[in-house]
Amino acid sequence: MSKIALVVGASGITGSNLAESLISKSWKTYGLSRTPNTEIEKLNPVAADLLDIISLKQALADIAPTHVYITTWMRNDTEAENIRVNSLMVRNLLDVLSEKGSVEHVALVTGLKHYLGPFEAYAKEGFLPETPLREEHPRLDLENFYYAQEDEVYAAATRDGFTWSIHRPHTVIGKAVGNAMNLGTTLAAYATICKETGRPFKWPGSSAQWNGISDVTDARILAEHLIWASTTDAARNEAFNVVNGDVFRWSRLWKRIAAYFGVEPIGFEDKIRPLELEMNNDSDTWKQIAEKYQLREKELSRLASAWHTDLDLGRPIEVMTDMSKSRKLGFTIFQDTEESFFDLFKKLSAAHLIP
């Protein structure tokens, strides 16, 4: 039977890279989002609102996917609202697809907030896990929309008989515009502003993150991991961490990024200096840069998510994840992290998103 993929959130970092990889492997691929991705060749765009079940039924009327990849979420003001909205999105989708009886596997992308806590209590004292992070770590005694999303998948799998996989990447590095969590592009925009204005490239985070060991997830690695887990019997009905496979220290990488953009790096000095404050007045500066270099995106907020970068780089502990579970089951793909960043910067430049 031919494989038919439905990528939910195909306009984002994870979804767009996943769609490209599926298409390269000759899967018939549909990309669902409120504003469909029309830039990927051979991707079948589907416009729908996951919170509107009538919209979903109409959009999916003639689509019967075998594999469903959920790579999207919606940010809200409180965790209680995050739980309500994001669990409803998953529930609506799986309820509509249930009527078709075509789904064989559902893969859900969450992240390290599974271990570090939701936005309201992210990496706070009293809730800090042992690192490296391992999949068997119990859920925190905190409300968390990732847990609610997982529970919706588990319930639908029990009802409909499909298999599932949960994927927990660290910070995802890849090209996307308008993404809510985009550290790589945020740093590229910040470095571009620093170069254009003569400002130093200041480290915004904590001493622990500056000096400690970390890892990240290249969107291309995540795409391959999603496809692997959804087509490998031994990986079904399991939750997995997924990162590049190497580790690094920001104290080195920060200087390497600064050298790439030709700006002066300043490391951790005496306290956290949030990037959100540093870039707070840069919207007009970015518009001027965009006009000068004829860039495609004039709105800085569509490229940079400083608030999320501050969350990641301001954590009071070093954070790295254990990949042993995937390795033992046969996933051996590896990605050099420095190359992840430099590949991204080259793509952003080629797409006329940075000079």
On the 0 to 100 scale, the average pLDDT is 95
Number of helical runs? 14
Main beta sheet, described? Answer: 7 strands, parallel
Determine the strand fraction and express it as a percent band: 5-15%
Helix/strand/pairing class, anyone?
Answer: alpha/beta
Strand order of the largest sheet: 3-2-1-4-5-6-11
Taken from the alpha-carbon principal axes, the silhouette is globular
Report Rg. 20 Å
Our measurement of the CA-to-CA distance between the termini, rounded to an integer number of angstroms, reads 46 Å
In which range does the helix fraction lie?
A: 40-55%
Number of E strands: 13
* SSE order, one letter for each helix or strand: EHEEHEHEHHEEHEHEEHEEHEHHHHH
- Detail the poorly predicted runs: none
